[in-house]
Design a protein that fits this description.
The protein is mostly helical. It has 10 helices and 2 strands. Strands 1-2 form a two-stranded antiparallel ribbon.
Length: about 230
């Protein structure tokens, strides 16, 4: 049975709460990429004292959503072609490995749940028309569920803690449109079928191709923006 990763569970401390709120604001673009971080402004916005705010900012830095620039302070990370390529090279290899391990370790019930998740995606969004394919974070995200299915704690920590929200930032702000939407959905279906068939090599290959195609889609958008 699926269990949410600790990073996606309900916040416990004030720092947990503000971390999740700032994560959401950065991923959704409410805090613009490249914008300066003002601790006094954030403290007022989230009604928080400086100590838990600084703890939250330190955690955001560890998951690469903010960066500290010498003599310029902290800023929201910028979306760039260079950053995308570095991130997606790593993602392609690690998520491919996660698929290979998921084919070995996911239970039949977990596979059924992921297939049901994809059915929900198809029924609740205009995937076939190429209009949208937005996935919420955590248990409603196909990639997140497959990563957890690897049952490899080190891989899960890297992909679900350290890199997850930076990946989501690119996916949400520079997401899919047009023919890529329905193709991405079909690729998800093919990946879970390979996992269900316990064909780890094929699942690995399909995920690598899927992420490479997503990277090319986002790269094109960045080029059009001149980033």
């Amino acid at each position: 049975m699926y269990q949410p990763h600790p990073a996606l569970r309900k916040p416990i401390t004030a720092a947990d709460r503000v971390l999740q709120e700032i994560q959401r604001a950065i991923v959704d673009g409410d805090m613009a990429a490249g914008s300066k971080i003002s601790e006094p402004e954030l403290a007022r916005r989230f009604d928080l004292s400086r100590a838990p705010l600084r703890e939250a900012l330190a955690r955001l830095e560890r998951c690469h959503l903010i960066e500290r620039i010498p003599n310029a302070g902290a800023r929201v990370v910028k979306l760039s072609t260079t950053g995308l390529l570095a991130l997606y090279q790593l993602r392609e290899n690690l998520e491919g490995l996660a698929c290979k391990l998921a084919a070995e370790h996911m239970s039949d019930d977990e596979i059924t749940e992921v297939r049901q998740l994809l059915d929900q995606h198809l029924s609740s969004q205009r995937v076939r028309e190429g209009e949208s394919y937005y996935q919420e974070a955590g248990d409603l995200d196909f990639h997140y569920r497959v990563i957890l299915g690897s049952k490899n704690s080190y891989l899960i920590n890297i992909l679900c803690d350290e890199l997850y929200y930076l990946v989501r930032m690119y996916r949400v702000q520079l997401g899919m449109n047009g023919p890529r939407v329905s193709r991405a959905f079909d690729e998800h279906k093919a990946i879970i079928t390979a996992i269900a068939n316990r064909d780890g090599e094929l699942a690995d290959l399909l995920m690598r191709r899927h992420i490479a195609a997503s990277r090319r889609n986002i790269e094109l958008q960045l080029e059009q923006m001149g980033t």
